[in-house]
Amino acid sequence: MKKSLTLLLSLFFVASALLAGCGSSNDKNTTDKGSAGTNNKPANEAKVSDEPFEITIRHTQIGEAKKFRLAILDDVVKKTQDAVPGLTIKLDGVDSEVNRKEKLRGEMAAGKPPEVFDVFGSPDAALYAKEGLMLDLTPILDELGLKDKFSDLGPFTYDGKVYGLPIGGSIEGIFYNKEYFEQKGLTVPKTLDELEAIADKIKADGKIPFAQSSKDAWIPLMTTNNLWSYYAGPEVTYGFKTGETKWTDENVVKGVAKHQEWVQKGYFKKGELGFEYADMRNQVITGEAIMMMDGSWANSVFRDPAQAGDLVGKIGYFSMPPLKEGDPFVVMQDSNNGYGFSSSVSEDPRKLAAVKEFIKNMWTDEMQLRGLKEDGVLPALKMDLEQMKTTSDDPLMQDIFKAVSEIGKPFPAFDALVQAEVNTAIGMGIQQIIGGEIDPQKMLENVQAAQDAANAAGE
């Protein structure tokens, strides 16, 4: 077994342990290139088989918060099935963390992923593509006229070829209770010090300043990643994998120490290590917490009466402010989550036609704008900001559009830039910080040791 696959299998077992604690519709009908685009087929053309066949789409659109995304997927699936004779698409819904860190890794190690699957672009897609496990989409994008339509295919590009497609874009920032701010005479902070002053006032009022759930480490790491990017600069994270920068840089330590300070000051609810992702949103919905660091995708929860109740229309959004007023906003902005396709699809013309049809139906302006309007997911396809603003006049979405327009220094999330083992190490580390088991310096020394080992292995 190749080294990378051995790594995948080992990561699969590690993650399991941690988790336990298109072408046009004509493509499907043509076996003769000369018959494409016409219904007047030659008499000697072979009849396309309409025998039943099946493909599986692994998705992560489960739970109430993702119901709009699932509805879009359902409609694309129906369109695709209607266009491809004999096709049945089986939907396999799995929790995002379980899919990424356990199930998909295990399937990839065995060389048997589903035909279509939810996948992170960087670093996951490159690792799987390197082993020949993902379908090269480069010629398909050319065929469908999609090659230059995406805002950023970088996370899904390996060795000059595209191995996956982002379903949307996102930024990270702070959702807040506008009604509470108005009642208390609070305004959107311009500096990190002002943000802390607001948090102190909220805590003194008997409320939780920041909603947080830390059972899954990626959630609190949104806060930590933003903090060290302000203290050390967002470019520092790009150098960890190359060895140009170190996790033990004094300014990275300051960022982690600031997160620890917020924990010690009681800015988060006690017991956060036991809370699931949905619990964090509920802390805001119930009025228990006033602010929440999260991805822009969370807006759909606060715009849905079935989930947010009377809070609809009372939630705003702003970027985490800089250290000094007037400094550029440093914001996590990426399009690193989407769909990949098994390389085995290329061995079956009917499955390949089904995949092309799925891509053709999913990545359209109509579906991207629908995702923006219904679910608040920023488009993966290139679109003018003004067009996005006119698609949704919702006040919360307008806050998010404003935040996008104000970005001074965008950066990808750290886990798109480092190896999987390093991601695991920092995830364990931030949970130890939250639990009071370790200090920032020692925690980052442990992360650097994992980074050094991964770099030395040439991963």
Structure, briefly:
This protein has 18 helices and 13 strands.
Could you please describe the fold and organization of this structure?
- The chain is built from 18 helices and 13 strands.
- It is an alpha/beta fold.
- The protein has 2 domains: 3-31 and 48-169 and 335-383, Periplasmic binding protein-like II (D-Maltodextrin-Binding Protein, domain 2); 171-334 and 396-456, 3-Layer(aba) Sandwich (D-Maltodextrin-Binding Protein, domain 2), CATH 3.40.190.10.
- Helix 1 (3-20) packs antiparallel against helix 3 (96-110), helix 2 crosses helix 13 (349-362) and helix 8 packs across helix 9.
- The protein is globular, with a radius of gyration of 23 Å.
- Residues 25-42 have a biased composition (Polar residues).
Give unreliable regions as ranges.
1-46
In the CATH hierarchy, the third-tier topology of the largest domain is known as D-Maltodextrin-Binding Protein, domain 2
Q: Could you state the CATH homologous superfamily of the largest domain? A: Periplasmic binding protein-like II
Q: Quickly count the domains.
A: 2
Determine Rg (CA atoms, Å).
23 Å
Q: Compute the number of strand runs.
A: 13
Distance between the termini: 16 Å
The percent of residues in helical segments reads 40-55%
Name the structural class.
alpha/beta
Main beta-sheet annotation: 6 strands, mixed
Mean pLDDT: 90
Signal peptide: 1-20
Region (Disordered): 25-47
Protein name: Extracellular solute-binding protein
Keywords: Signal, Transport
Question: How are the SSEs ordered, and which strands pair?
Answer:
Layout: H1 3-20, E1 53-59, H2 67-83, E2 87-93, H3 96-110, E3 116-120, H4 121-130, H5 138-144, E4 157-158, E5 161-162, E6 165-166, E7 170-177, H6 178-184, H7 192-204, E8 208-211, H8 218-232, H9 250-264, H10 277-285, E9 289-295, H11 299-302, H12 305-308, E10 315-318, E11 329-334, E12 337-341, H13 349-362, H14 365-375, H15 385-391, H16 395-405, E13 407-411, H17 420-434, H18 440-456
Parallel strand pairs: 1-2, 1-3, 8-9, 11-13
Antiparallel strand pairs: 3-12, 4-5, 6-12, 7-9, 7-10, 7-11
